[in-house]
Specification:
This protein has helices spanning 26-30, 85-97, 115-124; strands at 2-4, 9-10, 18-24, 33-37, 43-47, 58-63, 66-72, 74-80, 103-104, 109-112, 128-134. It is an alpha+beta fold. Strand 4 and strand 5 (43-47) form a beta hairpin. Helix 2 (85-97) packs antiparallel against helix 3.
Length: 150
């Protein structure tokens, strides 16, 4: 079993002849440690520095002409499309207040599909649709210790 201790680069930097994808959910991409299997059943142990987040397209290893590349797995998400800056702010505020995971793209906010969020967005009149797509985009990584709603 190979041990992955660093990300070698991205597919943009390294252009291998063949790829063995490592399909990971957003939660799995956030975990810097674990045992995983590629699409071709290569067993890998990931042991990356704390707070490392794997990105779609990260190259983890090269074996001859084959690169092991992270592929973001499709997940059940809401794709939220706020119409204006007020809607963007209201959506961000409310999702943050509910402690929901979000990813930001240029045109949408992605968050895991959830009935509570669907109800909230419907009541706010914010357009959204349910899709099964990779949970990728800019993530806010600010961590606040001692946060409570007391």
């Amino acid at each position: 079993m190979d041990v992955i201790t660093e990300v070698l680069g991205t597919l943009t930097d390294i252009q291998p002849k063949h790829i063995d994808p490592l399909l990971l959910t957003s939660e799995e991409r956030l975990s810097p440690h674990g045992v995983v299997y590629t699409a071709n059943q290569r067993k890998l142990r990931i042991s990356l520095p704390r707070s490392t987040e794997l990105q779609d397209g990260d190259v983890l290893a090269i074996d001859g002409e084959v690169a092991i590349v992270v592929a973001a797995a499709p997940e059940d998400l809401f794709v939220i499309s706020p119409a204006n800056s007020l809607d963007w702010g209201m959506t961000g505020f409310n999702l943050g207040n509910l402690h929901r995971s979000v990813r930001f793209t240029d045109s949408a906010i992605l968050t895991p599909a959830d009935p509570l969020v669907a109800d909230l967005l419907t009541r706010l009149g914010i357009p959204f649709e349910r899709q099964t797509i990779p949970f990728v985009g800019q993530r806010s990584s600010l961590q606040v210790s001692g946060h409570s709603h007391g």
